[in-house]
Amino acid sequence: MEIEGETRSARKDREIIQAATAAFIGKGYDGTSMEEIATRAGASKQTIYKHFTDKETLFGEVVLSTATQVNDVIESVTTLLSEAKFMEGGLQQLARRLVTMLLDEELLKLRRLIIANADRMPQLGRSWYEKGFERMLASTASCFQKLTDRGLMQTSDPRLAASHLFGMLLWIPMNEAMFTGSNPRSKAELERHADASVEAFLVAYGAQPK
User: Fold this and answer.
1) What confidence score (pLDDT) does residue 172 get?
2) Closest residue by Cα to residue 96 from 178, 13, 198, 164
3) Rounded CA gap, 90 and 140, in Å?
4) Most exposed: 78, 174, 177, 210, by fewest CB within 10 Å?
5) Are 152 and 86 within 8 A, CB to CB?
6) From CA 100, how far away is CA 31, in angstroms rounded?
7) Bridge partner list, 21
8) Mind listing the pLDDT tens digit for each residue in 21-33?
């Protein structure tokens, strides 16, 4: 698939990263060779090394490329947690979107890879966390502060409130998925879990009737 305005070099980078993602997820970091990535990408090993210095560098690009997906999530957070959307069930919509996105099968596999290689590449895991989850947490906390200022929520610590919401949403289904090697819950089950989490969250942090 071509992207409008994309340079030839950028397109090749993208194709290599896509091929590497499939290889790393399928065979793990140690089980993947640059030769296999080249074959999957339809390129020579020389081309791969021209674009990426070594396997570790390429693995880093694969991991960090997923963090760019967070931009869409951040936009969803700021939209669904605006005053009007919040009053129309925006928090529930956001919770459903977050739990289904973060429990995507490919993302789960990549998450396991990052954890498995955290000792040898600690900075990579930290960067993935900071550019991904940390940004989501900060954006949500900022929105919670605005909603509190408008009397739609009650919290003295919006960041802690955001942490509580994410914890309620992800603790059980994420651990199920990480330890069982798959996502055992259907989308409908995840959405019911999200709805129940939001209901409990609003008991604690929702605006109290006057």
Assistant:
1) 92
2) 198
3) 12
4) 210
5) yes
6) 29
7) none
8) 999 999 999 999 9
* Chain segment 47-76, per-residue pLDDT in tens: 999 999 999 999 988 988 876 677 788 889
Number of helices followed by number of strands (H, E) in the chain: 12, 0
Q: Is this model's pTM higher than 0.70 or not?
A: yes
E-assigned strand segments in 130-203? none
How far is the C-alpha of 44 from the C-alpha of 47, rounded, in Å? 5
Tens of pLDDT, residues 198-208: 999 999 999 87
Closest CA to 13 of 44, 66, 50: 50
Which structure tokens are listed for 210? Answer: 């006057």
Question: How many alpha carbons lie under 13 Å from residue 204 in its C-beta half-sphere?
Answer: 14
DSSP assignment string, 80-138 = HTSHHHHHTTHHHHHHHHHHHHHT-HHHHHHHHHHHHTTTT-HHHHHHHHHHTHHHHHH
User: In this structure, how many other beta carbons lie within 10 angstroms of the beta carbon of residue 78?
Assistant: 15
